[in-house]
Amino acid sequence: MIKNKTIVITGSEGLIGKDIVKYFKKKNYEIIGIDIVGGKNTIKCDITNEKVLKKKLDSKLKEIQPDILINAASKIPKINKFKFSSYNSQKWIKGIEVDLLGSFYVTKICCKYFEKANSGMIINLSSIYGVSGPDQSIYGKALKYQGYKNLEYSVAKAGLIGFTNALSSYYKNTNIKVLCLILGGVFEKKMKKSFVKKYLLKTVENKMLSTIEICKYIEFCINNRNIISGSNITIDNGAKAIF
Ligand SMILES: NC(=O)c1ccc[n+]([C@@H]2O[C@H](COP(=O)([O-])OP(=O)(O)OC[C@H]3O[C@@H](n4cnc5c(N)ncnc54)[C@H](O)[C@@H]3O)[C@@H](O)[C@H]2O)c1
User: How far, in Å, from the CA of 45 to the mean position of ligand 1?
Assistant: First the structure.
């Protein structure tokens, strides 16, 4: 069977990344996964280390021309009590560097190949927390001056939206398309029922997203590349309407 397009995906060992890999492999796409965690057919690499990343990714892309890049790697924060006024600065920097630096490095490398071929597509995965602040009361007891879902995650995901706008505008009048999917909460079996219940109250559709729904949206974007470039598309079961 003839191979379909080639997708480079960061965070390929994560909850969403793994299912994207499975979904598109079944459709005969060539997949180049990158993750700080090693896995079968995954380039093991910390994407915030530009030198190592360049060496490893370039050697792969010299053999296989990429068509699509999906930036899915992110440092997803653990839910932990914190006080903003005594927040640790190093933790803040660590929380934003995967999205804001890592995605930049990977995109820069892929764009070299996209420009040569005058064709390419970049899909950034952002979150509703990049446009709305988290409601801390769904993560823990609502107490004055105390939070649970960290704040730098919102900064990181907002940065990806800005990156999408600026890069799609830079590539105007070319065949390199850039877009962003602003995702709502994705359901995971290990989630506490009490959390899911509180989250659902914050959605219009009373639903969390499934990874398969995200895969189908990505497929739609790939098949409709000429109408969605420069767009930040919200897929959240109406969470942003309420958050
Ligand atoms: N899960 C959700 O509810 C949700 C909601 C909205 C948006 N998103 C976004 O979707 C994307 C995927 O989320 P997920 O739920 O699969 O998260 P996840 O934590 O399961 O996966 C993220 C992956 O990124 C990898 N990663 C982290 N740091 C890295 C680094 N320095 N170099 C290379 N890889 C690194 C991790 O090892 C992990 O496999 C993220 O961008 C996230 O912000 C997720």
Answer: 14
